[in-house]
Amino acid sequence: MGVSLQDTGHDFGTVVTLHGADRPLDFVLVCEHASARIPDHLAQLGLSEDARFSHVAWDIGAADLAMSLADRLNAPLVMGEVSRLVYDCNRPLSSADCIPAQSEVFAVPGNASLSDEDRKSRYDLVHQPFHGAVSKLLAGAPPDTAFVTIHSFTPVYNGQQRSVDIGYLCDRDDRLAQAALRAEATTAEYKSALNAPYSARDGVTHTLQLHGDARGLANVMVEVRNDLIDTPETAKAMAQHLEGILRAARAEVLG
After folding, report:
1. 38, 77, 243, 255: which could form a disulfide with 70 (CB 3.0–4.6 Å)?
2. Quick one: which of 171, 163, 233 has its CA closest to 206?
């Protein structure tokens, strides 16, 4: 059975953090799936420890990558502080998998049989504060701000090996994604691709649509294979690489 938020009387603690709020807005970074934290009153959603710290609960390495990249770009960063199994901040409430009862091979007992009221409560307590923080940060953004979301993906999903190292994803505006691919082609360090291993058809561009496309800001979702960034050292190395790519892409698109 699902846990009713109305019955618990508990809140969710910190659901979003903002780093570097006073930095310039040449780039604005977002990391929706930075944390595997599940609020105590949800009883770990009934998950095993393996499931709670697997890629289904968060984007492994993404927080370290995003923090390091934000420092290198001197950019502000908005980070989610609750597991995406509680509520996926990169999904609207209308999405069937915004609160998944099954994620890849893992059942999520605490998300089973949730009422519409329960789902709306999680949306109000997690999604809305997170995106409110992003909106507040972007309220003063100039038109040449580059909006970038940072994610990671598992090398093997549902038994299928992924062939890409870094994906650059877009929704309606492909300017930054295409420019990043051109910059990658000059380095030949990693195998990169457009809209891989996911695309807008998979419902993964909610944040880009809500804050990038809606404001007319050039935007891109960066997906990195998680075994390339699963230690602080490898995350820093990838941040160094992506700094060059994103600076080159922004210069090409926005001057």
Report:
1. 77
2. 171
DSSP assignment string, 33-71:
T------GGGGGGG--HHHHTSTTTS-TTHHHHHHHHHH
What is the three-state SS of 217-244?
A: CEEEEEEEEHHHCCCHHHHHHHHHHHHH
Here the tokens at position 99 are: 């609160």
Claim: this prediction has a pTM higher than 0.90:
yes
Q: Position of tokens 């009221």? A: 117
H helices of the chain, in order, are 5-8, 49-52, 62-73, 116-122, 128-138, 175-185, 206-207, 232-254
Residues with Cβ within 8 Å of residue 48, at least 6 apart in sequence = none
Distance CA 113, CA 164 (A): 36
